[in-house]
TrEMBL record:
GO function term, MF aspect, one: transmembrane transporter activity
Species this protein is from: Cryobacterium zhongshanensis
Membrane topology summary: Multi-pass membrane protein
Compartmental location: Membrane
UniProt key word Membrane: yes
Main subcellular localisation: membrane
Protein's UniProt keywords contain Membrane: yes
PANTHER family, sorted: PURINE-CYTOSINE PERMEASE FCY2-RELATED
Protein name as catalogued: Cytosine permease
Family membership: Belongs to the purine-cytosine permease (2.A.39) family.
Record Pfam families: Transp_cyt_pur
Keywords assigned: Membrane, Transmembrane, Transmembrane helix, Transport
Region annotation Disordered: where it falls in the sequence: 1-30
């Protein structure tokens, strides 16, 4: 049976032999199978896919991803900073080393070192105001004829008024990182600011000399006669002690802020401890019934009391507000800085002023000397054997205030010239204080304490009024480059403000009660204005508040257009 027959019969099919290498492969043609299907009548084949499914075979199918916009993407918003701003991560911020001399005087504090919290302000100011000067102010208020409740009211009002120059200076220093006297270049001009800067330096020198005179009385109380107003010990201990404390304060101020904040923190604790101890030791001198029975003083006396607190506590340190805020970080709130400032300045001043008033009201015959010679009067009132704690208290409080005086004096001197380093300015201020101590010693502590602070307060009041008002009006912070170099947004001389400073200072001195000796030239406007020089109104020393009020009013009435011109000049730079 052939192979074909075997396939037809369904039997096994033997395998075909494999072709050889030379055999050609052949394939049978496929068979055509007729299915018997024919198209319907009237139908026509369609071969174009678009006519069947609505789009071509090669076209993309519709998809949600096709809804993405195809235009140019909008720029992503990013935070903008000023051209002179340095952006740092928190890990890069660090305090300056304590034992490295601070270099920055005219230029702003570097951002890397601006890590101070608002709470630091408390310790810096507490150490300064927790002093025998605050006791003397309260004693002076009571000796003027104010009742105890009026002393509290007057002290609070004086502290609140003091916060105007101190608070605005603190906020300005926190924003710009520059000293108070440097910032005032915007108010008086880059060149015109030389005049108030010289006054600021002289005020620091004079206050330094007055503090050394108070220290001399503390030394006298411990080593020599304790009668109020006594000249001092005759063995040379007074000048040696004063020069020793001055040398220590100079070294600390030379190193600058980093060391100052650490030392002031220690002095604040030591001063508070000594003050509490002296209050406890002198508690036996208090007669509350007598103190509470003191009658109220007149309205003029209240006015004079506010002037006194403002002059001795606020204007004495008005040029130091920004100096202690230069190292604060800008991330916190300005309100926190103001609250800590209020606590550091107000709490010790209020407590000690009230205590001084209580002592005077309790010891009418001997307590009145507290107002002119606080250390000597306390030494005379306290039991024997407490002179050395009193000396320690006087030394601590004077050292704290003297450090700040020399530090601010160095910054004021550096603001006079870019070629004068801050350290050299500190030494210059210390030398000036030592030189002025000689005439102050000739005056005596009593006369110096009565006349010098009020005389110094007049130009400071005029300056701080002008500077505070302009700072309050400004819508933006000061421009650093314009403060450092001529030709910027700030004019060389702001003639309106500079003239006002000189005129208002002259008016203020003309409305001060003339003292004996060197201050007899004051009070020259009382008679031309029809005011009795010996009357109750003249006794309030209205020149201080008059100079300050005129200073505040001038920028508000005549300076706003000039300030807005400055800001318009700075607007293109800030927009970059």
């Amino acid at each position: 049976m052939s192979d074909r027959n075997m396939r037809g019969q369904g039997g096994p099919v033997p395998p075909e032999p494999a072709p050889g290498d030379d055999d050609a492969l052949t394939a049978e043609s496929p068979a055509v199978i007729e299915l018997g299907i024919s198209p319907l009548d009237g139908s026509a084949p369609r071969t174009a896919a678009t006519e069947i499914i609505g789009f071509g075979i090669d076209d993309d199918l519709p998809d949600d991803a096709d809804d993405v916009p195809t235009g140019v993407a909008a720029p992503v918003a990013s935070p903008r900073v000023a051209d002179d701003e340095i952006v740092l991560v928190d890990a890069a911020l660090a305090d300056e080393p304590r034992l490295v001399i601070e270099r920055y005087a005219q230029a702003p504090t570097p951002v890397v070192n601006r890590v101070g919290r608002a709470s630091r302000v408390f310790g810096l100011w507490f150490a300064v105001t927790a002093s025998v000067v605050s006791v003397a102010v309260g004693a002076r208020l009571a000796s003027l004829g104010l009742s105890l409740r009026q002393v509290v009211l007057v002290t609070v009002l004086g502290i609140v008024l003091s916060l105007v120059p101190l608070g605005l200076g603190t906020l300005a220093g926190r924003r710009n990182g520059q000293s108070t006297v440097m910032l005032s270049r915007a108010t008086f001009g880059v060149i015109g600011n030389l005049v108030p800067a010289v006054f600021a330096l002289l005020v620091r020198m004079a206050w330094g000399a007055l503090l050394l005179a108070i220290l001399g009385r503390a030394v006298t109380a411990a080593t020599g006669p304790t009668a109020p107003g006594a000249a001092g010990a005759r063995d040379g201990s007074v000048p040696l002690a004063a020069l020793g404390v001055l040398a220590v304060a100079t070294v600390i101020a030379l190193f600058g802020y980093a060391l100052i904040r650490s030392v002031q923190a220690v002095l604040a604790v030591a001063g508070a401890t000594l003050v509490i101890a002296m209050m406890v030791l002198s508690a036996g001198l208090v007669d509350l019934d007598s103190a509470l029975a003191a009658p109220d003083g007149s309205g003029f006396t209240v006015f004079g009391g506010v002037t006194l607190v403002f002059a001795y506590l606020g204007l004495a340190w008005a040029s130091s507000g920004a100096d202690l805020a230069r190292y604060q970080g800008r991330s916190g709130k300005g309100s926190a800085s103001l609250l800590w400032l209020l606590a550091g300045v107000g709490v010790p001043a209020l407590v000690l002023a009230v205590w001084g008033a209580v002592l005077v009201s309790s010891q009418r015959q001997r307590g009145a000397d507290l107002s002119v010679d606080p250390v000597g009067a306390l030494a005379a009132l306290l039991p024997e054997g407490l002179e050395w704690p009193l000396l320690l208290l006087g030394t601590v409080t004077v050292l704290s205030a003297l450090i700040l005086t020399l530090y601010s004096g160095g910054l004021a001197a550096a603001a006079l010239s870019a070629g004068l380093p801050r350290a050299a300015g500190v030494v210059l201020t210390a030398v000036g204080a030592a030189v002025l101590l000689l005439p102050f010693g000739g005056l005596g502590v009593r006369a110096a304490f009565l006349t010098v602070p009020l005389t110094l307060a007049i130009p400071v009041a005029a300056w701080s009024g002008l500077f505070s008002a302009e700072t309050l009006v400004r819508a933006s912070r000061f421009d650093t480059h314009s403060l450092l170099k001529r030709g910027g947004a700030y004019a060389d001389v702001r003639w309106v403000n500079l003239t006002a400073f000189v005129v208002f200072s002259a008016i203020g001195w003309g409305l001060l009660v003339p003292g004996a000796g060197w201050s007899a030239w004051q009070g020259y406007l009382f008679v031309p204005l029809g005011i009795d020089p010996g009357g109750e109104f003249a006794a309030t020393n209205p020149g201080v508040l008059v100079a300050f009020t005129l200073g505040l009013a001038t920028p508000l009435l005549a300076g706003i257009p000039a300030i807005r011109r400055q800001e318009r000049l700075l607007a293109p730079a800030s927009a970059r």
